[in-house]
Every structure is written in C-alpha cells, then in structure tokens.
Amino acid sequence: MVEMKMLRLGIVTFLIYLIQTTFIQYFAIGGIIPNLMVVFVICFALTQSDYKKPMFYGLACGMLLDFSSETLFGVHALLCMFCALLCEQVSTRFFKGKFFVSLLFVCVISFLYEIAYFALSFMLYDGVPLTYALFGVALPTVAYNAVVSVVVLLLMRRSAALGD
Fold it and tell me: What global pTM score does this model have?
C-alpha cells in the first residue's frame, strides 16, 4: 500500500515536472508562469505530519528543477526543502487541514521562495533590481501559484477523503 502511494507520488511529480519544463510556458501571463513544483511541494508538506517526507520530497523536486535551471545547481533543492520543512512545521502546529489557511500558506511560502530565489540570483548574477524581483516577478508568480494551488488543494482533499 505504501509502495503504491510512493509510486503514484513519483509519477505525479514527474508529470508535473514535465509540464513545468515543457508546455506551461504557453500559459504565461505577462511572461509569468506558475511554479508548479513549488506548489506541489507546499501542498504535499501541508498534508504530512512527519517532517522527513516533506523535506525529502522538497529536495527531490528542487533537484529536478535544478536540472532544468540556469542557476547554480542546488539553489532550488535547498529552497524547496526549506519551504517544505517550514510549511510542515507551521501547519502541523497551528492550522492543519483548513482550506483557506492552506491557500494562505501556499501564497506566503511561494512569496518567500521567490524572494529567496531572487536574492540568491542577485548575489550571483548582479543586476536584478529588487523592485522588479518583488513587483514584476514574485507577486505575480504568487498570484498565479494561488490560482493553481486551489485546484491542487481540492484534488489533494478529494484524494484524502477517498482514503488514498
């Protein structure tokens, strides 16, 4: 049973990775695309009560993003792992299972992820203005992630209600 869940999670993760790295760009609004991998990492962390699974899942998803990224290898892996840990720790202690609070978590954690990513990019590639990072990329990406996460959270709730 556990092996089947892990296999299903691996398949879904790989499909999300393929969508993220191939045709999601056709759904860009103003050059902004949602970060599906980060949304799935956060939503997965919200459903867990043990910190090890979300951390491993965040690390694995981040490494997949690193393979298709132009940034320093490991940046996405560390950020996804940290976001998963932060999300799991805060949600388990305070607001486990509430839909709108989960949606708020996706927004806040996505925002932190984007800001940290651009802070690291600024340090590495010099010249990324903070105002552009904040208002031109981070906030629009968070809004897009929030829309996508509504669907993801509803699917995860339905899956949990079915005993999956």
Answer: 0.85
